[in-house]
Specification:
With 139 residues, the chain is of the alpha+beta class. The protein has one domain: Alpha-Beta Plaits (2-Layer Sandwich), CATH 3.30.70.100. Helix content is 32%, strand content 29%. It starts with a strand and ends in a 7-residue tail after the last helix. The structure holds flavin-adenine dinucleotide. Flavin-adenine dinucleotide (FAD) binds next to helix 1, strand 3 and helix 2. InterPro entries: Acylphosphatase-like_dom_sf, BLUF_domain.
């Protein structure tokens, strides 16, 4: 069965304390029910999310996410079918993109490791997700 993978970026709006964990809880609950997996990278200003699963579920969930007032300027970076999931074990992994370990692991994918998703093209974003697949410490 083919798997659709969608990657988007957005700018964070101000979140209450623990706001990021509220998003993760909601995402994990819904995604597990919909057989969706993926990862949500964040820093102070941005989100970068990868969603993977059945095409209709990915599209429907992305539409809901796009309307969420907790972020803005939601922009699709890449969408397409992939041979297998990058994050089969994560209903929604949460990764702080400023983690020093992550910076080291991704330095050849993101030279200078400037985590500004606005500058990410589809190929680099897809490669980044494939690389993250190998980073067990980010679970
Ligand atoms: P909804 O998901 O809107 O569901 C309401 C009802 O509609 C459901 O009970 C169901 O009956 C029906 N429904 C809606 N969509 C589907 C579907 N795909 N399949 C079947 N039935 C459906 N939310 C996620 O779920 N997954 C994420 O990965 C995710 N990532 C987020 C990332 C960011 C940066 C932000 C800001 C938000 C994210 N959210 C995510 C939260 C999302 O924006 C909504 O707030 C959340 O999905 C609302 O969940 P809900 O269960 O209250 O309502």
């Amino acid at each position: 069965m083919s798997v659709t993978q969608l990657i988007y970026r957005s700018r964070k709006n101000t979140l209450p304390p623990n706001g990021i964990f509220a998003i993760q809880d909601q995402a994990r609950r819904n995604n597990a029910e919909r057989d969706l997996t993926g990862v949500l990278l964040f820093n102070r200003d941005y989100f970068l999310q990868c969603l993977e699963g059945d095409a209709e579920q990915v599209t429907r969930t992305f539409r809901t996410i796009s309307d969420d007032p907790r972020h803005r300027e939601v922009a699709l970076i890449a969408v397409g079918d992939v041979a297998e999931r990058c994050f089969p074990d994560w209903s929604m992994g949460l990764v702080d993109s400023t983690s020093p370990d992550l910076r080291v692991a991704l330095r050849d994918v993101l030279p200078g490791y400037e985590f500004t998703p606005e500058a990410l093209d589809a190929t680099t974003a897809t490669t980044l997700m494939q690389r993250m697949r190998t980073l067990s410490y980010t679970r």
